[in-house]
């Protein structure tokens, strides 16, 4: 520590003459002298503060943004949520369609295990995914329903609506004809702003928006399930259309007949049905092919 103190005083020129003489006689003096000599020859670089500032500004680095590592997780979750949302939307909006082509019948079950039988040339559409919350279906044509006990749903047609609870019933909606038959329990029929409640054995027939008949003598099951076509004051064109559906044939008719028909025709014996039709309307028929029938005026 003493030598360091002497060196500092000597370099600063603060030693007395006596101290300086003593220090110069020390073994280390020659080394210190050379250090002082060489140090005096060193030059400090010029310091241009303005130039340094400009360099700092010019080479200023953009701040590095550190993105959180979990950013990709957030994106993945967002994509997943959007995907699920789109999937749920399509599930809710998608419909289930059951059909019975001409000459066929189709039996199936609804999500609540209610049984449905579609008649020829008929179609039912409903939303299977959210059936529990929206119990309704759309019917075009004719169908027999055997509703599961305690279950309830609506049958919508272009001509009216039928609301049911644990019952068996038949609905037919074709052109301007709307028919409902109740075989068990009760159903509520809505049409043209009116409501009618049918109980077991009751039925209602509506043509052109007008109630034409209510019967109390219907059978235990719909006639069409017994291979019969039942008509109630129907025109020849309506009868022909039903026969084409049931037999999957084409019937050519150029006759204009106003006579209405009420009765039953077989849906499993074309020849018998044509015989009854020809006698009722006094016409003739021919069958050039298996799937084509021609009706002509009786000579």
UniProtKB/TrEMBL annotation:
<keyword id="KW-1133">Transmembrane helix</keyword>
<feature type="domain" description="FecR protein">
    <location>
        <begin position="102"/>
        <end position="188"/>
    </location>
</feature>
<keyword id="KW-0472">Membrane</keyword>
<protein>
    <submittedName>
        <fullName>FecR family protein</fullName>
    </submittedName>
</protein>
<feature type="transmembrane region" description="Helical">
    <location>
        <begin position="70"/>
        <end position="91"/>
    </location>
</feature>
<keyword id="KW-0812">Transmembrane</keyword>
<dbReference type="InterPro" id="IPR032508">
    <property type="entry name" value="FecR_C"/>
</dbReference>
<dbReference type="InterPro" id="IPR012373">
    <property type="entry name" value="Ferrdict_sens_TM"/>
</dbReference>
<dbReference type="Pfam" id="PF16344">
    <property type="entry name" value="FecR_C"/>
</dbReference>
<dbReference type="InterPro" id="IPR006860">
    <property type="entry name" value="FecR"/>
</dbReference>
<feature type="domain" description="Protein FecR C-terminal">
    <location>
        <begin position="229"/>
        <end position="291"/>
    </location>
</feature>
<dbReference type="Pfam" id="PF04773">
    <property type="entry name" value="FecR"/>
</dbReference>
């Amino acid at each position: 520590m003493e030598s360091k103190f002497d060196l500092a005083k000597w370099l600063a020129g603060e030693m007395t003459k006596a101290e300086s003489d003593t220090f110069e006689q020390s073994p280390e003096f020659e080394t210190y002298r050379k250090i002082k000599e060489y140090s005096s020859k060193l030059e400090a670089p010029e310091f241009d503060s303005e130039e340094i500032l400009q360099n700092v500004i010019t080479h200023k680095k953009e701040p590095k943004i550190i993105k959180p590592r979990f950013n990709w997780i957030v994106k993945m979750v967002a994509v997943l949520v959007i995907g699920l949302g789109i999937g749920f939307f399509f599930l809710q909006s998608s419909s289930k369609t059951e059909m019975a082509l001409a000459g066929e019948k189709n039996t199936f079950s609804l999500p609540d295990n209610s049984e449905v039988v579609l008649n020829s040339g008929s179609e039912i559409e409903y939303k299977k995914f959210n059936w529990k919350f929206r119990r309704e279906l759309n019917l075009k044509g004719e169908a027999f329903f055997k509703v599961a006990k305690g279950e309830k749903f609506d049958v919508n047609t272009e001509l009216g609506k039928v609301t049911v609870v644990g019952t068996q019933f038949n609905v037919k909606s074709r052109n301007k004809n709307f028919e409902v038959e109740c075989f068990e329990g009760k159903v509520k029929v809505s049409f043209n702003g009116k409501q009618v409640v049918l109980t077991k054995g009751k039925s209602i027939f509506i043509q052109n928006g007008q109630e034409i008949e209510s019967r109390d003598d219907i059978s235990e099951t719909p006639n069409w399930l017994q291979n019969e076509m039942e008509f109630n004051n129907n025109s020849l064109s309506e009868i022909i259309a039903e026969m084409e559906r049931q037999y999957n044939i084409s019937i050519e008719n150029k006759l204009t007949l106003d006579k209405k028909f009420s009765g039953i025709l077989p849906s499993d014996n074309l020849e018998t049905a044509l015989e009854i039709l020809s006698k009722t309307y006094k016409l003739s028929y021919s069958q050039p092919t298996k799937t084509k029938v021609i009706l002509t005026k009786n000579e």
